[in-house]
Design goal:
6-stranded mixed sheet, 4 helices, 46% helix
């Protein structure tokens, strides 16, 4: 058998093996609720989500205006982008994070979240 055919069979088998292993590991992770976060953005958002979450009076007033909902805030905390140039700075015995996301109406918003050691506080919600 020629080398190019051996290489083709090897690569085909390798791709099939990698596909099945990733599918198996992904289904195991989803079944047990494990989330793999290695990038800084994912790690910050996961850390904020796993703590008790409080809403400041300024943010509550913005939520009462009805242009943004609590569901939009939750989705931003799951899929948003952390602006690290303005974030990770000491603020009121915690660290401040600016998280950019979108509402259900596709309007850009920015959340200001203070991440304390044992809880997270939503301080402000702004339209971008």
């Amino acid at each position: 058998m020629k080398f190019k055919f051996k290489l083709a069979y090897y690569l085909l088998g390798l791709m099939l093996g990698v596909y099945f292993v990733t599918q198996f590991l992904q289904s195991k992770a989803e079944a047990s609720g494990v989330e793999f976060c290695y990038f800084p953005n994912c790690r910050v958002l996961q850390d904020i989500r796993k703590k008790p979450f409080d809403i400041d009076s300024i943010a509550q007033a913005t939520l009462n205006e009805k242009w943004v909902t609590l569901d939009d805030v939750k989705k931003t905390l799951k899929y948003g982008d952390v602006d690290f140039s303005k974030s990770n700075k000491p603020y009121k015995r915690g660290k401040i994070y600016i998280i950019e996301g979108k509402t259900a109406q596709n309007e850009p918003i920015a959340l200001t979240v203070i991440n304390f050691e044992n809880r997270a506080v939503l301080e402000k919600i702004k339209k971008e």
